[in-house]
Design a protein that fits this description.
single chain, 251 residues, SH3 type barrels, twelve-stranded mixed β-sheet, 4 helices, 20 strands, globular
Length: 251
């Protein structure tokens, strides 16, 4: 199923995308799902980031092609950092270029959405805690990242975490094509099979450090080809089976 969060006449609602229509549901999408009977065309509503999160846990250097591109050895364990919930923005929304930076990059990523509280989850049980998968752009102020000893500032500006357009609950994340386009020009093209640590291992590792809550997002890393954006650009993250996430850069 494709779960969507949207705004209609000033009210935030949840729904399921089926055959080109959004079917409104009565509650948040982590428990039982009950349709209200109302249906909307996607063009008649404002799509929002499909989930709200208490935290976004991101993974650095998690694709073999990206490590090769950077001439860095493969990590022995996941390299994680946090992005704040205030960085989340939805499909079609602006990515604001902060005045503190002179270089802002796109990073196409597959995101895992957690469906229930998770702490010290064994690898073999990790699938039981996954709600689904979606597209994410781990926007980064690259010049600030290089200046700082840690990455919080460069990853945390408002609008630096576009997510969407929906959460797909039935995808197999092991081998999905992942791409990024800048003004329709291909910039990143890889496959999730090139990830060093897959979703199960990431849940096992991260939940051993912190409790994950329903709606929390794990951004699983970006492949080779990251690069800069400037105001006026259109950036698209496209993942096989997970749709297309489009945003626009504004100064």
């Amino acid at each position: 199923m494709k779960y969507i969060r949207f705004e209609k006449e000033g009210a935030v609602k949840y729904g399921i995308l089926e055959k080109g229509l959004i079917h409104e549901t009565e509650n948040r999408p982590f428990g039982s799902i009950k349709k209200t009977g109302l249906r909307f065309k996607p063009g008649d509503v404002r799509l929002l980031a499909p989930v709200t999160a208490s935290k976004i846990i991101a993974v650095g250097l998690n694709y073999t092609d990206h490590a090769k591109e950077l001439k860095m050895p493969l990590p022995a364990e996941p390299l994680i950092f946090l992005k704040p919930p205030s960085s989340i923005t939805g499909p079609g929304e602006a990515i604001y270029y902060p005045r503190e930076s002179r270089r802002v990059d796109y990073e196409a990523e597959m995101a895992v959405v957690i469906k229930k509280k998770a702490y010290r989850v064994p690898y073999q049980e990790a699938d039981n805690y996954i709600f689904g998968y979606t597209c994410l752009n781990d926007v980064t102020a690259r010049d600030l990242q290089k200046k700082d000893a840690q990455w919080t500032r460069s990853k945390s500006f408002d609008t630096f975490c576009p997510v969407g357009p929906y959460v797909e609950t039935e995808a197999d994340p092991s081998s999905l094509k992942i791409e990024a386009f800048l003004n329709k020009t291909p910039k990143q093209s890889s496959n999730t099979s090139n990830m060093i640590f897959g979703p199960r291992r990431l849940i096992e590792y991260i939940s051993g450090i912190m409790t994950l809550e329903a709606g929390d997002i794990i951004a699983t890393g970006t492949p080779a080809g990251v690069g800069p954006m400037v105001p006026g650009d259109k950036v698209e993250v496209k993942i096989e089976g997970l749709g297309s996430l489009i945003n626009y850069v504004e100064g």
